[in-house]
Amino acid sequence: MNKAQLKSFIRGSVVSMLGVVVLGVLNFFVRRTLKLNLSMTDFGFIYSAFSVVMMILLFIDMGLGQSAIILISRSFAEEDKEEASRIFSVVFVVKMLLALVTFAIMALLAPWIARYFLKYPSSTMMFIAILLILPAQAFLTNVLNVMNAKKAFFTRQVMMSLRALLVLAGVIFGVTAFGVKSWVTCFVGSCFFLGVIGWLIIRSYGVKFVPLYKLNLETYKSVITFSSWIAVSTAGIYAMYYMDSICLTWLSDLEAVAVYNVALPLMRIAQSLFVFPLIFTPFVTEMWKKKDYKGIQRSCYIGSAVMLATLPVLVAIGYYFAPLIIRFMFDKESVVAASSVTVLWAGMVFNAIAGFNMNALNAGGSRKMVALMVCGCVMVNFTLNVILIPQYSYLGAAWATAVTYFIMALASVICLVIAFRKKQYPEIAP
């Protein structure tokens, strides 16, 4: 990175770090309020159903989210607002159509899923309501991706924090009277409301919706082709993120899911230290375009080392203070999740390293390499969950996730070495 890029990167990282801290705290209070006012079964149902919906959403994303950030970043770098508008429009149309079609299919299957997977037969209509997150989240993320490509990190974080704040307000004032319905209504409603506001904001960047008849087939083909391998890797990464809750629902029970979801918000607060992968994407896209291979290599290695240095700190804090933190933030019955917090904190370090390196690889054209690596890690993660959960329940799920992230981080560094060798020394690269 040059000095201007480094300054912008640091500023974006600080803004995003503070934003993620705020977001993590707000999401924690949402979970805490639900935990203290709902039964363990209802609380477990919310996050089991949410994990199912998010897993579906990630698969129907088809890699278009990250692809949009990379492609729109290139268009902004070239000051081509018309191309940015075309890419945004293609991604918006494809994602919204997929979300709506998938919602309809899943709504038909809802009675079967509620009875045989969630093991909560009376939740069919509530599960259908949660499925509305599919189009709502697709709508909001489309505009957030443009903000990220524009490097409008502050605006993006404000939008995310506002959503969490609206959900928290709705839960605080409605959970006693309406239970699970209060969370569902506020989550879906806030996504659509902020999506409309975000739409108005990105218009100020010069990005507008291009009518379908003005988008030729070549535009669709170029975006879909670029997204194909990213789709595989993105779906795999987030599949691992929600795999633990889904496997706990399948192999254990909703109470185990509830305990595990005491650990998760604390993990996400710790995630505030690891905003670098998201911030790095538009910068590394510009660096690849300028063929600054040594700068990218140096940035990736330094970034990985800095994040790795936080590992002993997080492990020590988790080992000595996680029970106290959980007792203070939740209640004494939830202290059983303390060991899972420590393991997940350690895993997040390796997840951040892997994400940082994989974003660099995707932006540089090594999308197939990343996709194959992630596919291997998904299989490892699923296997570890199946082996460890029956014996160790929620702690087994945490270990399965952390070990997989370690393998993924190590593999991402190896892939970086191979990619840089090919770029810098094409005549001797294998």
Question: Can you put this structure into words, describing what you see?
Answer:
The chain has 430 residues and is an all-alpha fold. The model has no long low-confidence stretch (mean pLDDT 83).
Keywords:
430 residues; mainly alpha; 15 helices
Summarize the structure.
With 430 residues, the protein is mainly alpha-helical.
Number of separate helices: 15
Provide mean pLDDT, rounded: 83
Number of strands: 0
What share of the residues does DSSP label as strand, in percent? under 5%
Low-confidence stretches: none
Structural class: mainly alpha
Mind describing the biggest β-sheet?
none
Span from first to last CA? 28 Å
Global geometry: globular
Radius of gyration: 21 Å
| Helix content bin | over 70%
> Topology as H/E string?
HHHHHHHHHHHHHHH
Write the layout of secondary structure elements.
Blueprint: H1 3-37, H2 40-61, H3 64-77, H4 81-117, H5 124-131, H6 133-149, H7 153-178, H8 180-203, H9 217-251, H10 254-270, H11 276-289, H12 293-308, H13 311-329, H14 338-363, H15 367-424
